[in-house]
């Protein structure tokens, strides 16, 4: 009997808005990534997508992003009817992944995912590829030019399968640079930002700003900014490093 591979399922959602239960899912796409016999991760299977009836009208603002109309989903199944089968497939995945996974996790509850662990490819990209000009799914696509990514299959952007397909290439490459456990750990804590986002020091690496400026970020309302400032302050006090880890540390 052929042994099933270890897979991580990348998912992407299109929705009526950002905040359930006010908003609902109107499409889910997925693409699996599997560990091969050679110890390298690769895309696995064809992936897919399903339209979903969100149970409410599609706001024009979100239609303008994904171009899914009310008439496209009026006969589609409800989210609770399909979510579990997509999110908890056989063979059992070892984790779920998404770009900015905090968004997907709002709609993909632990009951639907069978308590899956998540990898956020956005948070991991900040750690592994801090020199990127930006960290959106599409900017990473064109900056990194992942091997094997079929340009047309990854279009149109802002539809569930093409976005999952692009994200899967980022995840594959991240898994080939760092361990599953490391990616899950980074994904479970606030993001470590490589550069200051705003203010007089905007665009500077955190290790280049004056301590007087750094202290102000310690009380910022954004948890990612606070976490990054705290980590940089700890580095200056001898408590660790901000930025890229060594290859040996990544694979532990």
UniProtKB/TrEMBL annotation:
SMART domains: EXOIII. The keyword Phosphoprotein does not apply. One of its GO terms (biological process) is DNA replication proofreading. One of its GO terms (cellular component) is cytosol. Residues 7-180 form the Exonuclease domain. It comes from the Bacteria. SUPFAM superfamilies: Ribonuclease H-like. Keywords: Hydrolase. PANTHER family: DNA POLYMERASE III SUBUNIT EPSILON, EXODEOXYRIBONUCLEASE 10. This is Exodeoxyribonuclease 10. It comes from Sphingomonas jeddahensis.
